[in-house]
Amino acid sequence: MAVAVEVMLMADVKKLGKAGAIVKVAPGYARNMLLPQGLAAPVTEASKRRLAKLEAKRAEERAARKAAAEALATKLAGLEFTVKVRTVDGTRLYGSVNPAEILSAIETARGVKLERGQLLLPEHLREIGSYTPKIDLGEGVQVPFKFQVVEDTAE
């Protein structure tokens, strides 16, 4: 039976550990998977220095992403708009308001193009009313906004 080898993870590896962790793995797994893909390195002073540089670079990139998200958050702050839709009986919608319609309204109002995954809607909107969902800009930055769903009377 082969003896486990110690390697230092250079990146997060699912079901194994986070970057910087020193783990014991089978020699074949280290030799054929982790080392060739740069996911791990032998435990040496050089690999510890390389990991420290990687960590510093990642922290710098996270800080830049957070600053960009906060700048976008200030642009989206106080966002309010109205969506006009057809209704069945004056309260229930004929269909629903989908995320694409909301993202289109945000783009029209503020000129910011967002992805569907950034819109945090608890459910499909099927009734007239006022809603306050959030936009997730990443790095822990979320921006609440308000919109109203009203009946489209121009038919």
Please, could you describe this protein's structure?
By secondary structure, this protein is of the alpha+beta class. It folds into two domains: 5-63, Ribosomal Protein L9, domain 1 (3-Layer(aba) Sandwich), CATH 3.40.5.10; 73-151, Ribosomal Protein L9, domain 2. Helices cover 34% and strands 30% of the residues. It has three helices and eleven strands, in the order E-E-H-E-H-E-E-H-E-E-E-E-E-E. The strands form four sheets. Strands 2-1-3 form a three-stranded antiparallel beta sheet. Strands 4-11-8 form a three-stranded mixed beta sheet, with helices on one face. The chain has a three-stranded antiparallel beta sheet with strand order 6-9-10. The radius of gyration is 24 Å and the shape is elongated. It starts with a strand and ends with a strand.
Key words describing this protein structure:
single chain, 155 residues, alpha+beta, Ribosomal Protein L9, domain 1, Ribosomal Protein L9, domain 2, three-stranded mixed beta sheet, 3 helices, elongated
Low-pLDDT runs: none
Q: Can you tell me the overall shape? A: elongated
Number of strands: 11
Distance between the termini: 78 Å
CATH superfamily of the largest domain: Ribosomal protein L9, C-terminal domain
Fraction in beta strands: 25-35%
Q: Could you say what the CATH topology of the largest domain is called?
A: Ribosomal Protein L9, domain 2
How many strands, what sense, and barrel or not for the largest sheet? Answer: 3 strands, antiparallel
